[in-house]
Amino acid sequence: MMQLALGQASDLRGPVAVVMTSKRPGAETAAPKIAQRVFDSFKREGVVGLLDDAATAKELRAAGFSDPRSCQGTRACLSKLAILLGPRAVVVGIDVGKVGKTLAIHLEAVSADREESLGTLDVSSSLSGWSDAMSAPIVVFVRDVKAGLELKKKTPGDPPPTPPLEVARTDTPKKTELVPAPKAEGLVNVVEQGDGKPPKVAAWVFAGGAAATAGVAVAFGVMSGNAKSQFDASLVDLGGGARGSTLPEDQARALANSANTNAAVALTSGLVSAGLTAAAAIFFLKD
User: Is the pLDDT of residue 173 over 80?
Assistant: First the structure.
């Protein structure tokens, strides 16, 4: 509890808790290693008031929350964890899924006193290559979160402070854009100006991007299906046409929203992949 008091007394948000917020089949071995990697990265960047996965789970149990992994990565649940840890606490959720030999990693930092996330990161890689895949993106993510820890100093002309964030009644996830779609206008300009070998180079770039985003779409699609299957399996007939779930309300809601979030990411990635495939075809066909 000493770390909590220190974090709240300074001009920075704190404590900063790095914790696993999902338990997905096949990711049990990789998730703790990734959580430790994230914790170490915050430590190297000089972030103070850090809590690792074990310390965070202990604090949350003391506050009455059984297991942060039951959040299944949903943002509303992360906000609830942050509020339980303190009025200025920050929770960095580690959500890891595995499909075949592919890992899908989602990091999100949520503060108890603001609505927007302090930072997000989505990485897809082979099972053995996640460390290299995260090496540069994780530094950018940690530095973004670190910058968001600083509280704006109050001046005489400042408006009254915003009241603390309330726990959301509904668990509506935000759609995550894994890969930005190419702008149509920019694509036309490249096609008109390129000639000779450059279009072929661009074609291979677009083709590689299409393949990568297609893999992401498949991974998140399978993860969505798994969550939906678990939710459907818990449903029971209550009679009179009514149906209920055998799972606790928070867990059932987390499963439903996890399925919706992953389905949205899969759909978005599929659309991006289709756009990149079309762009690659244009460049391959150009003389």
Answer: no
| Alpha helices per DSSP H over 45-183 | 53-62, 75-85, 130-148
Residue 12 forms beta bridges with which residues?
Answer: 150
Distance CA 266, CA 214 (A): 9
What local confidence, expressed as pLDDT, does residue 163 receive?
58
HEC sequence for 143-194 = HHHHHHCECCCCCCCCCCCCCCCCCCCCCCCCCCCCCCCCCHHHHHHHHHHC
More confident residue, 204 or 247: 247
Candidates 39, 21, 146; CA nearest to 81 is 21
- Rounded Cα distance between 48 and 14, Å, is 8
Distance CA 122, CA 94 (A): 10
- Cβ-contact 6, 14 below 8 angstroms: yes
Please determine, for residue 92, whether its predicted confidence score (pLDDT) is greater than 90: yes
- Rounded mean pLDDT of 158-164? 59
CA 279 distance to own-chain centroid: 28
DSSP one-letter code for 10: S
Of 110, 156, 114, 130, the C-alpha closest to 31 is 130
- What is the spatial distance between Cα 285 and Cα 140, in angstroms, rounded to a whole number? 37
